[in-house]
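User: quick one, fold this
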Amino acid sequence: MTAASIGRQARQVTKGFTARLTGKAERGADRKVRRGSIDVEDRRSRVFRPIGDGTTAGAMGWIDCMLKVVAEWDNEQRAKGGARPLGLHGLRVLEALLGRHGKVALDFKSGRLDPALDTIACAAGVTKTTVVRALARMKDLKILDWIRRSERTGNDGVFGPQRRQVSNAYFFTPHELPARVAQRLRDLLARKRLRRTGTTPAVSPAAAAEPSCLDLRDTLARIKAGIARRDDGVNASPPCGQYPLSGVEG
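Assistant:
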């Protein structure tokens, strides 16, 4: 053991002894660890989900469809004069998370996705602040979510930080997208699977009859609602504002 290491240990022991004497031995939560962070070994941090069916071909198809649906949603809202749900920078961050720009590792089979914010920023070609804002927006839009994580520092019994922050565990939540956007994603995935394997998941006749065009599906929904109200003996015209005229829910 070198003199330098002996000196460091002596200083740590002195700090710990002084802390106990002054009543500051209990540090509480480490200040640099975000509130709500979960230990990397805790089962609650195991949120990763396979991408598509977990195969390379299936995952690549899922990524293509996910990006297409989100871009369509973004463009539709812009065309109607509203704000883009995600925006161009947000789309680049999403592309980076899905492995389109390299640098970000995405395991298709397990769905493991835990890059550092700096890594995402480098892959997307944007600032770290832009990444943080884009991630918050994607969480609001139900595109993805994450778990904050931390790990032990190995300083057990020594005065000093007991835990440190590590990267988030990210996972995609397509089932939580607005209904029509999620349906558009399912339609695209079914078509891609049909082209790739010649098979498609079984669907009910009603679901199979649903058009992929969001505006057309909305119009059909209004007609069906009017018919239902007529059958119930109620005026077939819905109250103003009860049904969306067009666009994406959410």
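User: anything notable?
Assistant: The radius of gyration is 25 Å.
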